[in-house]
Structure formats: structure tokens, C-alpha cells
Design a protein that fits this description.
By secondary structure, this protein is an alpha/beta fold. It has a domain at 6-236: TIM Barrel, CATH 3.20.20.70. The protein has helices at 7-14, 36-49, 69-86, 101-114, 130-142, 163-172, 186-195, 207-210, 238-247, 251-260, 263-270, 288-297, 317-330; strands spanning 17-21, 26-27, 33-34, 54-57, 91-95, 118-122, 148-153, 176-181, 200-203, 222-226. The strands form two sheets. An eight-stranded parallel beta sheet has the order 9-8-7-6-5-4-1-10, with helices on both faces. Strands 2-3 form a two-stranded antiparallel sheet. Helix 3 (69-86) links the parallel strand 4 and strand 5 (91-95). Helix 5 (130-142) packs parallel to helix 6. It starts with 6 loop residues before the first helix and ends in a 5-residue tail after the last helix.
């Protein structure tokens, strides 16, 4: 675990490679229980079979808003237990976001005690008084914990920090060392780097990596939270191969690989089901049922209850058909 004082030095060396954001497999009546065997299998698959060096736990894809505090703690504990048994050096990132600062504090303190390396706080989802309110939230947590902290700047919060607001948090809260910029606004990430050049930035827009932003130091060499396990298999490790080209500054080769492997076409074929519910098309979401359906196509266990918990909707047949077609065209699902 990186302490608050060590956070920024630690981040420069430790945050590297693919970080898998884990879904939560549900079971029982209306998904009221968690399939722990399925979850353990997922962790072992990501860290062991795929060899990915980082995990991202209890965040958007995990549907953290629908989980109890106890469930979130146990999910992190199980992930650490299974992952470290395979790779003692795996970097475990915990999302400890909550609307109540005391709940966020409880989760962040637990993350440190359980052995997580860093805790990310998503911009609070309710009643955030802009950057000033989010800064107060971070200061409250940082004053009572001793662990590296990261920002998770997602439009699913309903409020996205400006580059100036994020830079101020970085300036005033020394434990903050990284940010996942999930709003797909590269120009803001470039500005944030100018304002806070020591902050480790991951930009969700993949095109910036092909544009040489890693070489320029604008983004860090880590995917802080992505569903990398949905883009490859142990037999066809195309996502890892693509990412290695980026890390080694072979940008033309990476562009060719993205086109020739089918990865670029897959982005178009899959559509927006992972991040958009048609009934609220202006809102960015992490549709757990869509991620889990994709995982099921790859043979990963998703629990006996395949849907998201409320307040998300069940994935429609149209979405399932489009997702399956995309995977068949990519070649990760048999013809």
C-alpha cells in the first residue's frame, strides 16, 4: 500500500499496464446475493490467465451504487486474497465512492487495512456544490486516512470536474496522485496536465494514446480502470499486444494493429450498450448487465442472476444480439 506521503512517487513507478474493472456476479432472488465462486474465478482469470497487472474494484462496472457497504468491503477483500495469491505485486485499486462522506471514509479506511494500494473517489453523485464541494470531500477523507488517493471524474456522477477544479484538488491534497478521466474530453485532460503535470492521468478516449500523448507525458502508462478482459482471451491476446505497442511507442504499428485485428471495427459494432441506456440517452451509465452479458459470451461466470440490480434496467434482446454479433465478427466468439 502507498501511504499518503509516498503516493506521488509510488504512482510514477507502480501505475503501469492494464487495470481490469471487475463486475459483480449476482445470484439469488432478484440478485440479492453475490456469487462468490464466480467472482473469485473472474479475479483469477484477469490476474492469472490474462496476466493483467492491475485490478479496479467496486467501481462503476461493479455497480457500486447497488451494493451494501459490507458487500463492497468483502468484494475488495476477496479480490486482494485471490489476486495476491497469484501475483503478490498486483496493483489493487479500490473505488470508495459514496454520497455520505462518513461512508466513503469507512470504505477508504477499510481499503487501506485490507491491503489495497490506492483508493479512488468518484465525484459525489448527489448535491455536489461544484469543485469547491468536491475539494471539501477529498480534504475530509485525506485528513482521516493514510493511503494514496485518486480522482474518478465520470459523467455518471452528473457533475464533471473542470481541469482547474481537479488541479486544485491535486495541489491542496498531497495524497491525490492519479485520476481516471472518464468524460471522453481529451482537450480537458491536456489542460489538466498543463495545470498539474505531476498527476497521473488516464484518458478513456483511446485515440489520444495513438496521438503520442504517452510519449509527451500527458497520460500515464496505465489503464487505471477498463474492462480489458472483455477485449481478449488467453488464446488471442490482442488487447495486450496492442497496449504493448503503445507502451513501446510503436504508434504506427499500433494503428495498423487496431485496424487489422478488428479492434477498431469492434468499437463500432458493439455500439453504446455498455455506457448508454436508450431511455435516457443523454446520460452516461455503466450498464452492468451489458458488461456481464459480454463476459458470458467469453465463457466467464456471471452468476445465476444475469441482470443488474435496480435502479438499472434489464438488458434487452436487441442489445444482446448486437453485442454477440460484434464478438463473432471480432472472432472472440466462435462462428
Amino acid at each position: 500500500m502507498a501511504t499518503a506521503a509516498e503516493a506521488r512517487t509510488w504512482a510514477r513507478g507502480a501505475l503501469r499496464g492494464i487495470g481490469d474493472s471487475l463486475y459483480t456476479p449476482f445470484c439469488g432472488t432478484d440478485g440479492e446475493d453475490i456469487d462468490w465462486d464466480a467472482y473469485r474465478t473472474l479475479v483469477r482469470y484477469c490476474v492469472g490467465d490474462l496476466g493483467h497487472p492491475m485490478l479496479w474494484c467496486t467501481s462503476g462496472i461493479a455497480e457500486f451504487w447497488s451494493l451494501t457497504i459490507g458487500e463492497r468491503k468483502r468484494l475488495l477483500e476477496v479480490a486482494i486474497e485471490e489476486a495476491r495469491a497469484i501475483n503478490p505485486d498486483v496493483v489493487v485499486q479500490a473505488c470508495t465512492a459514496a454520497t455520505a462522506p462518513k461512508d466513503c471514509l469507512d470504505l477508504t479506511q477499510h481499503a487501506a487495512q485490507a491491503g489495497a494500494d490506492i483508493a479512488y473517489i468518484q465525484t459525489p453523485m448527489m448535491e455536489a456544490h461544484g469543485g469547491e464541494g468536491v475539494l471539501r470531500f477529498f480534504k475530509y477523507i485525506a485528513a482521516r486516512t493514510d493511503i494514496a488517493l485518486g480522482m474518478f471524474n465520470s459523467p455518471s456522477s452528473g457533475y464533471v470536474l473542470t481541469p482547474a477544479e481537479s488541479a486544485r484538488i491535486y495541489e491542496e491534497v498531497p495524497a491525490v496522485c492519479a485520476t481516471k478521466e472518464g468524460a471522453f474530453r481529451p482537450e480537458a485532460s491536456r489542460r489538466l496536465h498543463e495545470l498539474a503535470p505531476g498527476l497521473a492521468v488516464w484518458e478513456c478516449d483511446r485515440t489520444v494514446y495513438r496521438a503520442g500523448w504517452l510519449r509527451a507525458g500527458i497520460v500515464c502508462p496505465a489503464q487505471l480502470g477498463t474492462a480489458g478482459y472483455l477485449f481478449e482471451t488467453p488464446q488471442r491476446r490482442q488487447f495486450s499486444e496492442y497496449w504493448e505497442l503503445i507502451l513501446n511507442d510503436k504508434l504506427l504499428e499500433a494503428m495498423d494493429y487496431g485496424r487489422e485485428s478488428g479492434m477498431d471495427q469492434f468499437d463500432l459494432d458493439i455500439g453504446s450498450w455498455w455506457t448508454c441506456y436508450p431511455g435516457r440517452s443523454d446520460y452516461f451509465t455503466h450498464w452492468g448487465g451489458a458488461f456481464k452479458y459480454a463476459a458470458s459470451l467469453l465463457g466467464l461466470p456471471i452468476g445465476a442472476y444475469p441482470h443488474s440490480r435496480p435502479p438499472q434496467a434489464e438488458l434487452p434482446a436487441e442489445a444482446k444480439a448486437q453485442i454477440e454479433t460484434a464478438y463473432r465478427r471480432l472472432g472472440l466468439v466462435g462462428g
